[in-house]
Amino acid sequence: MTLHRLKGEHGGSQREYVDVQLDKSYVAFQGSQQEALAVYLSGNLVFRFKEPATIKHIRVHLSGVRRVSLPSRTGWKKSCKEEEFYKKSWDFHDAYRTTPEVLPVGDHRYPFTVVLEGSMPESVERMKEASIAYFFTVEIGRKHGRDVSYRKPLHVIRSPTLYDVAMTLDEVWAEKLLYRIHIPSKAVAFGTSLDVNYDFVPLLQDLKIEYIESQLLEVREFAINEDEVVSGRNSSTTTTILSSDRYIIDDNTAECTMKSIGGYQFSRTLHLPKTLGQCVQDTDALGITVKHKLQVNARMQNPDGHVSELRLTIPVSIYLSPYYRVWGGDSFVSEDLPPIPVICDSEEVPPPYGQHETDRLYRLALE
């Protein structure tokens, strides 16, 4: 049976509804799985009946589910696996242990609490190949009439302990080129951008730098079974270019030339996608690994005419920031909220997350 979600606090409506109301609209861990502290989460199961109901059971479950789906080597079918790695249950009434209870017309509220350990894996969403998802499931068994079921997702995010960790590479390459690459922050919030500062000084007379190409790459690794990550069995690895920039020196000589030392100095910005799925945060849990890196390619023409290339790879990380939010776990948006959809009587699917309150995911400050 589908019950309507609560509109506002009560909305003046006497329609039936069911909801899981939480003191936090998301769970945020700060630091890695080894260093993050536990988070205390409290909430209430709330529902309204418009007529008395004889209840057999009232249960709430919080589940964590891992899913991996990989194409087979033959290409005929996919290898899929879905498993529950976490479960916490609250049993507010069970007719097998007690007599059935008759609930009167009106609103009903059942509080619950849970401590989530900092070692729990964070949510990984919107990838076709794999996911880590948490959700509440409500089960209300009625002696007469259809049972009530309802499901609501819980988003778990993880942010770094230190945000502004800079990185600088300052080297001489092949006695031809002095370069300095500076990244103000290796940790980048999802939906924002990565800034890179470059200094290049040719050490070889008549060495010509043609262009500097910067690419932000995302590497995804999945294994059907967690213990197969190291062996590589039943696993898959894909690399995607999230953002790319080619800076041609000849086109920008006037603005980037350092005349005093005969070098070049400039900055580039790589913009991240603003939609989960096109890009996801760094993670390494339960056989699902996502990493990011900056790849730099400097193409040069030597005095004798042959071409040389300097290729560098610098690790960076992308995290979901509590100061930005993703509406419905999908696209990165501003502070303006989209309209709330209305659930019709004929719909049998659970109502969308966030209808009864503002979705503050990735927006509130860490506690």
UniProtKB/TrEMBL annotation:
InterPro entries: Arrestin-like_C (IPR014752), Arrestin-like_N (IPR011021), Arrestin_C-like (IPR011022), Arrestin_domain-protein (IPR050357), Ig_E-set (IPR014756). SMART domains: Arrestin_C (SM01017). Residues 173-323 form the Arrestin C-terminal-like domain. Keywords: Ubl conjugation pathway. Signal peptide: none annotated. Pfam families: Arrestin_C (PF02752), Arrestin_N (PF00339). Belongs to the arrestin family. Interacts with hulA. This is Arrestin C-terminal-like domain-containing protein. It comes from Aspergillus cavernicola.
